[in-house]
Amino acid sequence: MPAPSSNRSLLLLTVAAVALAGGLLLALAMRPDAVVLQSGTLLPQPRALPELNLLDDQNQPYAQSRLQKHWTLIFPGYTSCPDICPTTMALLKQVLIQLGPQAEQLQVAMLTVDPERDTPERLGQYLHYFNPHFLGLITPEPNLKRVAQTLGVVYVKVPGESGSYTMDHSAALVLLDPQGRLAGYLTPPFTVDALVQDFRKLLKSGA
């Protein structure tokens, strides 16, 4: 029988997924002339972000200005993740390969939801294994909670045996536009071909 904490985390993520799906459908209905994405959709209007106060995987401040002049894709995850995180990073590696020179216009970043264990060095080593241009983002609590709420990310710590734990987290990719604004969400299941086509549409349209 699942542990109560597992039930709570599953309920939390399920509610978040339903809310996100409903928001995406509403956005699509309100913005019929927008770029139609196979893997998700754009918000009716991009939303400006407050200062996030993050560090990168070089332990340097991640200034808001670094979000400018390119699309940014943020995935919430952590280096001890057993399945969805390495699978998603490997998939995004293939997406950038398929995009070719256009990949220079897309920054892929992983926001760790496990700052207790994920140091900047550990995060950088993990991501650079997949692609040397992947970026790690980190911030301690309670700022992580604020950033997650700002980006529409959900996560919860699930205790295990002997003090161990895992992190349940939402699997949607957060899309920021070249002005550093929250532009939309891409939701699983993902395929390389669909994501490549979506990014080519975005890069062509300048949406």
From TrEMBL:
Alphabetically sorted, this entry's keywords are:
Copper, Disulfide bond, Metal-binding
Which residues bind Cu cation per the record? 81, 85, 169
Bridged cysteine pairs (disulfide)? 81-85
Gene3D superfamilies given in the database record: Glutaredoxin
> What are the transmembrane regions?
none
Give the molecular function GO annotations: metal ion binding
Task: List, alphabetically, the PANTHER family matched.
Answer: ELECTRON TRANSPORT PROTIN SCO1/SENC FAMILY MEMBER, LINALOOL DEHYDRATASE_ISOMERASE DOMAIN-CONTAINING PROTEIN
Which family does the UniProt entry place this protein in? Belongs to the SCO1/2 family.
Q: What is this protein called?
A: Protein SCO1/2
